[in-house]
Write a structure and sequence with these properties.
Elements: H1 5-14, H2 19-27, H3 29-45, E1 55-57, E2 60-61, H4 67-76, E3 101-103
Antiparallel strand pairs: 1-2, 1-3
Helix pairs in contact: 2-3
Length: 104
């Protein structure tokens, strides 16, 4: 956390979150418990080796990692985002009904 302290403080300020509380959580037993739980969840969801970052959209691994493809695929899920207004050729992307988006 110390290596990214300034970035974290900036994010906390923008979101009106108490940095001292975040820091205390991260350094304490609650932070350690959360990191262990996150690691177990990741290992359960992805039991075999995966690349980092591992990108899934609606439960489907996204192998194309270029910006345009990711944006088209995300926008085709029906999300409401300003970036979707600039995406061309959304007809090329198969729309899905689920709204789940996972980026790890």
């Amino acid at each position: 956390m110390d290596a990214h302290k300034n970035d974290i403080q900036s994010c906390c300020k923008k979101l009106s979150i108490d940095f001292a509380a975040v820091s205390e959580c991260f350094k304490g037993s609650r932070g350690a418990d959360l990191r262990v739980a996150a690691a177990k969840h990741f290992d359960t969801k992805f039991p075999s080796a995966v690349g980092i970052p591992h990108i899934e959209i609606n439960g489907k691994e996204e192998k194309q990692r270029d910006f345009k493809t990711l944006l088209q695929t995300l926008c085709a899920t029906g999300i409401q985002a300003g970036a979707c207004n600039s995406v061309a050729s959304l007809q090329e992307v198969i729309a899905t009904s689920s709204q789940e988006v996972v980026i790890v």
